[in-house]
Design goal:
This is Diadenosine tetraphosphate (Ap4A) hydrolase. By secondary structure, the protein is an alpha+beta fold. The protein has 2 helices and 5 strands, in the order αβββαββ.
Length: about 120
């Protein structure tokens, strides 16, 4: 995908809530839970593995700032943090993005296993 066609590069209808030199954070338009934050590099990079060390540090810094903001605003009980990479990894927007997803008591009656629960047999081989 070209940068010009990338919805995250265009940043239309995206209200940036946190920013540093190399990354921005904004609320997910299709949140898993209230307070679901996306953190992206400013430069068009397709996956986590395309990021420079500096971009990784910038995203990490915003994830920590985002956690503080979410804690203050929504008081979650836990978090899921992660990157989807490639079609089979669940990536739907081909611009690298980190999901910072707050979790709340009883949003899942059986939270053990986290992301593994999405896989057949709980991810067991």
């Amino acid at each position: 995908m070209e940068k010009a066609a990338c919805v995250f590069c265009q940043r239309k209808n995206i209200k940036i809530v946190l920013e540093n030199e190399l990354a921005v954070a904004f609320w997910d338009s299709h949140p898993v839970n209230k307070g679901h934050l996306l953190i992206i590099p400013k430069a068009h990079k397709v996956t986590y593995f395309d990021l420079s060390d500096a971009e990784l540090l910038a995203i990490n810094a915003l994830s920590r700032q985002g956690k503080a903001l979410i804690d203050q605003t929504f008081s979650p009980a836990g978090y899921n943090v992660g990157f989807n990479v490639g079609h089979y990894g669940g990536q739907t927007v081909m611009h690298c993005h980190c999901h910072l997803i707050p979790r709340y008591i009883d949003d899942d009656p059986h939270p053990a296993g986290g992301i593994r629960k999405l896989l057949p047999n709980g991810g067991e081989i």
